[in-house]
Amino acid sequence: MVTNVEIIVSHVNADFDSIAAMVAAQKIYPRAKLVFAGSQNRNVREFLALHQDIIHFLDLKYLDKKEVKRLIVVDTRIADRLGDLEDVTYQKGVEIFTFDHHPPSPDDMEISRDFSEPTGAATTMLVKILRDRRISISPFEATLFALGIHEDTGSLTFPTSTYEDAEALAFLMANGANIDMIDRFLNQPLTPEQRELLDELLKSIYIENINGVKVMFTSARAKTYVDGASVVTRKIADLENINVIFSLIATEDRVYIIGRSKLDEVPIGEILTRFEGGGHPQAGSAVIKGSNLDKTRKTLHAELFTYIKNPLTAGDIMTKSVVSVDPDTPLVKAREVLNKHGYTGLPVMDKKKLVGMISKHDIDKTAHHGLSHAPVKGFMSYKVKTIAKNMTLDLIERIFTEANMGRLPVIEQGRMIGIVSRSDLLRATHGFEYLIEPRKIRAPSRRINREEVVQKIKTTLPLDVRRLLRSVGQTAEKNGFKVYLVGGIVRDLLMGQQNLDIDVVLDRDGIAFGKVFIEKQGGRLVAHKKFGTAVAVLPNGCRIDIATARSESYEHPAALPKVEFTSIGRDLARRDFALNAMAIALNTPKFGSLLDFFGGQKDIQDGIIRVLHDLSFVEDPTRIFRAVRFEQRYGFQMDGYTENLARQAIDMDLVGRLTSVRVRDELVLILIEDSAWSALKRLSDLGALANLQPEVVRIDARLQSLFKSIQNTVPRLNYYYARKSGRWLLFLMALLRNLSEQKLDEWCNQMRFKKADVQILKEGVLKTPVVLKKLRSASKLKNSTLYSILNPLAQESIEYIYARSSQRLVRQRIDFYLANLKDIKLNINGNDLLESGFKASPLFSEVLGKLLVAKLNGLVRSKSEELTFARELLEKGN
Ligand code: ATP
Ligand code: MG
Q1: Which residue in 68, 450, 614, 704 has the most C-beta neighbors within 10 A?
Q2: Nearest CA to ligand 1 atom 25
Q3: What ligand has the least distance to the C-alpha of 490?
Q4: pTM over 0.85
């Protein structure tokens, strides 16, 4: 006799989710036996018949219930849903574990350990455990688990579906779930009995409006209960496109109620508990013994009337304070009003009477016709659809889709009392968060833990920097500060890329911290009192940028989770993109803990650049440049929401209004990147470069090839030089190559580039054509001539000229100059001539010049030859 029996059970009428959850649970509790509490659905039965050699169930009759020590219950917590096994739950000394996804109810059994989670399917939570514990699964198991999840989430379309269900499905697909099999068992054709039932039910359809909700009722009589009546009921709901349906099926001594609902207002499971039934909000059933169709219908009606609250109407969701304009308002003015409020359309009111609507679209159509001062009445639409205060939302929705209107004025006794916009409707029907869904932050599937952050620090940062970070954390801890590593370095760390810009934020008084730190470490501190920031430069040359958390009052964007932010939280909330708004705690005990309030990690995983709130680009339009820079640098993309906001900001000409200096800085940052070309192209496509001398700056294929050529040239030619050239200057030369001298001067002035940079830039742009012409000359160039052409030019100009020409001759000449002539120097100077007894004279420099020419052309070599040659010249000259 087996003792200490562990069994895994689920509810009667087992469906795929419960079977799948049972099989998954057995992988976690391998000693436990699977036991059926009662019958199974037809699909499940057929599936099991096909796989009976693979899954083994213990027949109830071989189970000695008294020996059960542990009961693992999946997909329910209610004892009486366990059929014949119900009594086990009351036995003394039985340990009960549950894995359920239904909401808790007062009928729940006494549970030892409850692992339940509100996922769309019970299988999901078990699959998560298997995945996390790396328990391998066979393709058959993956298929069964996927079937369970598909079934209970309506293939992820039921409102109860969660992203975890989707993740579990993805995981199962990656592990061999068989789609054909899933499709076959999920969409079984109806059996003859089911088809017969369908016919019956279709004949009896009627629809009733219950407190504004359309409810369909169907009914049929049958000899016995038809297996799969719920499938049939769903089919009808789909066919008739109805949100709520109840099928009543009467057999000789009882009535079955099967309900389905897509509306939150009509939670089927909850309603059917009044009939001793149950289920999910969107599907459920009940059995009423000793009743008949009529009686059941009546009681169900009564329940529904008390259950379904009065639905929302226009009056509930409308905006009451309506912004409007009068018919004589000029279009520009109307546009301003629209922008100010962020609306896309406005009612036009003549005294208190609604006479039309003017939309952004109407105004934009007139943009290029010089009509901005014309009154709106010439452009508004006169035919305005209006609604009444008591109109229900489903009707309003229909009007929106049919009339293609952005907003509907609500009229009562001839007066406008409010307005309902599409977003009002969407918010009311799908919840406030629906419209901001793209910003709603979901926890990433797997968050990096502290050890992993520390590991990343180890693998990406050099030892001295690591020590420095540790020491920053220690000093802070000892002196009562909280310190965090922030910004680009955190982002790059998580991506496994080295970044040595150390930015830290202190919870208070960063400068004071800087002082303490420098005292300990040595080095010097440059403080900016006004900003509460400082730069610490350490003896080994490392720099740390120190800031104080900016925590002045900040109206944090509605999209953010409602959490009380600490000062570091508020500091992060002001940053540009989620992937840049993470911090790593450095204080000793917490060293390495990641703060990620906005889903930055997830964005890194998904390759997304995302702003933290709608007004981000309005607050700081340079973020558009930054967004594009990061996009191209990492091969990421703005999400649709962010890109829209960027486009809107560009449309509003916010980029054009930036000061030139800020544009310059962003431009340089872009030109420093390896992906400079693609970033410029992207900015140009977004329309952000419109203000950049459009008549000359063309982001075209010619420029692209020039950028490429520069990119190839620079490393090659830098080889001849001691310093690396400013490649961005070469890109800038290419960009501005068609500007006249005057235009170029104007532009440089306006942008306030450094003098030295302007000089190089101008040289490169203006001299290149002349120099190229000389270098292309077919006649032989003496070395000294080549030297005189190239020597006066800056490194950048020479490199640019090289990149500008693909001619062999030109490139050979430049190569030759760099390799053989550039560094030729005379071995003698004026002093040597003085020592040789000549009197100082202006002739010296002329002679030395000639001497250099001779040397370049190979006529003199050694120091003594130089001296002889110089003496001869001087004597001749005298
Ligand atoms: P890079 O790798 O190009 O240096 P970065 O992200 O480090 O990129 P920095 O200019 O060094 O950029 O800025 C450091 C951090 O400051 C950013 O990561 C971001 O958190 C924040 N930040 C920078 N510019 C802005 C901005 N315009 N608006 C909001 N936050 C910004
Ligand atoms: Mg940086």
Answers
A1: 68
A2: 576
A3: 1
A4: no
